Amino acid sequence: MDHIERRRRSLAGQLSIDFVLESVLSLARIHDFDFTQTIIFGAIWRANINDQLGNPLDADGRPWPLADEKRRRVSILEISGTLRMPYETARRQVNRLIERGFCVRDEAGLYIPLSVLIRPELIDALIINYDLVLKLVSRGVEGGLATESGVERPRLNRVDLAPNPS
Which residues contact residue 79 at a Cβ distance below 8 angstroms, ignoring those fewer than 6 apart? Predict the structure, then answer.
C-alpha cells in the first residue's frame, strides 16, 4: 500500500473515532454521562423509526418527527440482543429511562415519545450531531476519501493496519 493510501485510511480512522466520540458525548450530556443509558436510549429511538428512515414524511404527509402512534415499539429483549448486552442490564437501564421520563412502555413495547424528542436539550444534541455529520463528510472530501460523485471504498484488511516495518 502506498503512502497516500495509508494516509487516507489513517484519516478515515481518525474521522470515524472523532465522530463517534463527539456524537456519543453530545447525547450523553442528556443522560448525566451515563453511557450505557445513552446507548440504550439511542437503540430504542432507532428501533422506533428504523422502518421510516429515508422517508422525510410520515404516511399522513407530516414531516418528522413521527407521532407516537407511528413509532414501532421495541422490547427489552430486542434491545439487549441488538446491543449484545445482558438482558438484566438493559432492563435496569430501560426502567431508569422510564422513571426519568425519557421512554414509555405500553402494551406494545417501548418507545421514545415525541415530548422527549422536542426537548431543547435533545434538539441541541441533534444540531450538534448534524454539524458533526457535515464535518465528517467535508473532512472526508478534503482528505480525498470521497468526491462529489461518491465515496471511494477500497477494501481494508488487518494486514493494511499493521505497522510499517520500515
Answer: 40, 43, 44, 47, 85, 90, 94, 110
Domains parsed from the chain with CATH numbers: 1-33+120-154 (no CATH), 34-118 (1.10.10.10)
- CB 151 within 8 Å of CB 145: yes
- Indicate the helix (H) or strand (E) that contains 105: strand 104-106
Q: What is the pLDDT of residues 40-61, one digit of tens each?
A: 999 999 999 887 665 555 555 5
Cis upstream peptide for 113 (omega within 30°): no
- Cα–Cα distances (Å) from 153 to 9, 12, 23, 69, 141, in that order, read 10, 10, 23, 39, 13
User: Which residue intervals of the chain are DSSP H helices?
Assistant: 3-28, 35-49, 76-83, 87-99, 114-117, 120-142, 158-161
